[in-house]
């Protein structure tokens, strides 16, 4: 059993990590800094300055105005400082600390503007996808998830738990672990039972659910 029918990775969820290349809420690898899609590992054409990792649209939406305002302020202050300095020196390109600061501010402004643009680009892709998905029926979405080239697979890992908790409550995720974690193969089941006995009490393990 590989596919997780409880979670449809083709249904838009702005709070969940989304891969702009695969156009799905794929499972990921978290390297401590970035979230890499398990299907393409960030192979989608990257925008320099932005990461190739997955994005969380809800989060990007909040950051967009911040970057726009910061970009505007940096340019405004940087350019006016620079012009003032040029005016003061009568147009002689005398390098001054003042002018250096102005150039630096504009430089940060360019970087910040780039981030704003990357966020804008990501969100545009996201909203196009999300609105197309919202026009589909539940049955169409289910079929699309099944036909998708990437299928989220059950994995007894923290990354998987974190991924699943984007869509389900922690109790529901615990049920996923019970369901898939123990029925994968005998070895794993035994290992988990041993762990459980050691971790909790000397109670006998519960009988495996008959399938
Ligand atoms: Zn991907």
Tags for this model:
211 residues; mainly alpha; 6 helices
In a few lines, what is going on in this structure?
The chain contains six helices and two strands; from the N terminus they run E-E-H-H-H-H-H-H. With 211 residues, the protein is mainly α. The protein folds into two domains: 28-147, no CATH class; 158-199, no CATH class.
Describe the structure in your own words.
It is a single chain. The protein has two domains: 28-147, no CATH class; 158-199, no CATH class. It has a two-stranded antiparallel sheet with strand order 1-2. With 211 residues, the chain is mainly α. The protein is elongated and about 85 Å long. It has six helices and two strands, in the order E-E-H-H-H-H-H-H. Helix content is 54%, strand content 3%. Residues 47-51 and 186-202 have low confidence and may be disordered.
- What pattern of helices and strands is seen along the backbone? EEHHHHHH
**Hetero compounds:** zinc ion
Proportion of residues in β-strands = under 5%
Distance between the termini: 12 Å
What kind of sheet is the major sheet? 2 strands, antiparallel
How much is the radius of gyration in Å? 25 Å
Residue windows where pLDDT falls under 50 for at least 5 positions: 47-51, 186-202
| Overall average pLDDT | 83
Shape: elongated
Total domains, how many? 2
Please give the count of helices.
6
Which secondary-structure class do the elements indicate? Answer: mainly alpha
Number of strands: 2
**What fraction, in percent, of the residue positions are helical?**
40-55%
Strand order of the biggest β-sheet: 1-2
């Amino acid at each position: 059993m590989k596919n997780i029918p409880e979670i449809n990775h083709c249904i838009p969820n702005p709070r969940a990590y989304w891969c702009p290349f695969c156009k799905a809420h794929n499972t990921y690898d978290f390297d401590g800094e970035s979230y890499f899609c398990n299907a393409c590992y960030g192979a989608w054409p990257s925008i320099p300055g932005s990461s190739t990792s997955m994005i969380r649209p809800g989060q990007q939406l909040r950051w967009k105005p911040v970057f726009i305002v910061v970009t505007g302020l940096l340019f405004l202050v940087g350019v006016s400082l620079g012009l003032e300095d040029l005016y003061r020196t009568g147009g002689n390109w005398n390098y001054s600390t003042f002018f250096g600061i102005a150039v630096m501010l504009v430089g940060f402004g360019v970087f910040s503007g780039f981030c704003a643009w990357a966020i804008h680009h990501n969100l545009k892709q996201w909203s196009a996808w999300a609105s197309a998905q919202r026009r589909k029926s539940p049955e169409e979405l289910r079929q699309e998830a099944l036909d998708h080239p990437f299928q989220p697979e059950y994995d007894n890992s923290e990354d998987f738990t974190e991924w699943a908790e984007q869509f389900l409550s922690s109790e529901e995720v615990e049920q996923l672990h019970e369901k898939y974690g123990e029925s994968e193969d005998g070895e794993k089941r035994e290992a988990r039972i041993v762990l459980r006995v050691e971790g909790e009490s000397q109670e006998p393990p519960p009988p495996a659910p008959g399938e």
